[in-house]
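Run folding on both entries below.
>entry_1
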Amino acid sequence: MENLLKRKVEDMNLEKINFSDLIRQMDSSGGFSAKNLAKSVSILEDMIKDKGCKKFLSFPACIVATGLRGAISQAIEKGLFDIIITTCGTLDHDLARAYGGEYYHGSFELDDNKLHKSGINRLGNVLIPNESYGIILEKKMNPILEELVKQKNEWSGRELIHEFGKRLDDNNSILYQASKNNVPIYVPGITDGAFGTNLVWFSQDHNFKLDILKDEKELADIAFTNKKTGALMIGGGISKHHVIWYGQFSGGLDYAVYITTATQYDGSLSGARLTEAVSWGKVKEQAKYVTVDGDATIILPIILAALYENLKL
């Protein structure tokens, strides 16, 4: 028992501190999720400093409808990550906003029947008018697809996303920064959204094919050719699973930080703690890893701000 009672809980003093100091005090406080948040910064700092590590970022589409879109694009611009895995809605929201679509503040308690009648879609407490989403994507995507199909008839998802990013002029765009900085974006569920549906409609009257297996082969090559891998995973589902699934082929992730609001007691992947991934060989037994419970719109800005201070980025 004496070995357990080594480190005392320390009280916080939050006067005139920066993000780095805040994280250190969260660690010293010993308090619940705050301690895991502090640990996540330490793990990510080690991962970013490790030049031999291939660094993944995964996240769901919902946060791209918020101001976190700009935070993620900035992290890409600063070179924090080598590979992105996300969902189709990320393409939808990022392109729609890059094309001038305006998203608005709303509320979780609004009348959804009235919103539907007014042509307004609600994503949590964010409001998205039809003209800022599906309509603008249909208008903007088809001319680009017409241009691309003249170059070749068959494209992989990663190739298409890169081409769309090249044609944007928006520093806050995830696709723009990824294309500019040669960070590949993989969307395993690429037909699960407006971007994918437009590809389906386009293929009906064009000789256009989507090679989804090419993306998977590229991810497999990355896994088999990199001895060390790490990841920041925001939310669960297919984007998280693709990271840890291919992580097992490199012997398991060496660094892993997972931010989630889900519970583990329903057996879902979204709720699964990273320790469960160890049992599958998707995270190494000796890896540095932590699960942080909470809303990414609160947690991620604190993590990134502290990393920028610590790494002087």
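>entry_2
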Amino acid sequence: MNAPGLASKLSAFGAKETMDRLEAALKVGGATIFARIDHAAGAGSAGMELRPTEVIVFGNPQGGTPLMQAEQTIGIDLPLKALVWQDAAGAVWLSYNEPAWLAERHGLGPQAAAAVAALTAMLRALAEKATTAG
């Protein structure tokens, strides 16, 4: 969980409920959901076991386009993704790439600072809605 540029937030809910809450919050916020990938189900179909591990791929052209206008290579990291996973102790986490890390990775300059800040605030708010009661 100490991967550079990865933000992780402990969830008060199980994996499925955390992902369902995240998907609902994304839809309310106007994001397009491109895919929801259940890695544990995929492992099961191959006769293997994997703790709950699910990725959601989502985006919004208003958020991503300014970043790609600044440096098109960031398109390899867009649309955004979030991972909901259960650790060996049974705790559930929501993880995502920090926008500032993506910006640094792709050499985005100061012209992208406002877009990066907006994405950071949005992702933190979504993680809060998905992982905490209230």
